[in-house]
Amino acid sequence: MSSYRVRAASVAAALALLVVGASAATAGPPPAPNPGAGVTAQPPLSKESAELAAKALAQGAGVQLVPQAVNAAVQSVGGVCPGQGFGVTAANKIPGFVGAYEVFFNQTVTSGVYTATIGLCGNVGTSPPGEITVTGRVGTVNGVFIQTSDSAGNPADRGFHLNVLF
């Protein structure tokens, strides 16, 4: 596809978004929240939230942020999946506990943001469904504690993928 066609397609997409946004803006206020119902669309940004967002941008102007990250894919029996980790030094299943793991990294991660998801090593197969929680590991600055469970909330050994941004 020529660069002219790519630009034309980009302009057409931007115009479509503007039309959709304009029609949504003139559609009137969203329905009143129903505390018993789940959120199906984001409510509009409040004036206070818009001011907070603008203030955050102003504070960050000219600041070059370079986040750092470490990660690991961990087997349900413990241990890092071969070739699937960065900065990870160990991943252990905690003896005597179902679904309890500790993962250690080569640097401090206590100021990080932890995210984890149930998953297998490599790119073949799918994991049994489940749930996962992650928090800093008590007693150390370079580790995290993971608990995995089945979909009913019962402790269960599950492999997982862990990312820490700091």
Task: Briefly summarize what is shown.
This protein is 22% helix and 30% strand. The chain is an alpha+beta fold and 166 residues long. It has a domain of 97 residues.
What is the mean pLDDT? Answer: 82
Q: Gap between N and C termini, in Å?
A: 40 Å
Poorly predicted parts: 1-26
| Helix coverage percent | 10-25%
- Largest sheet features: 4 strands, antiparallel
Report Rg. 22 Å
Strand order of the largest sheet: 2-1-8-5
Number of helices: 2
Relative strand content: 25-35%
Pairing-aware structural class of the strands and helices?
A: alpha+beta
Order of helical and strand elements: HHEEEEEEEE
What is the number of strand segments? 8
What's the overall geometry? globular
Mind explaining what this structure looks like?
The protein has 166 residues and is of the alpha+beta class. It has a domain at 69-165. It contains two helices and eight strands. The protein has a four-stranded antiparallel beta sheet, with no helix packed on it. The longest helix has 23 residues, at 3-25.
Task: Map the helices and strands.
Layout lengths: L2 H23 L21 H14 L8 E6 L5 E7 L1 E6 L6 E6 L7 E6 L12 E6 L6 E7 L10 E6 L1
Antiparallel strand pairs: 1-2, 1-8, 3-4, 4-7, 5-8, 6-7
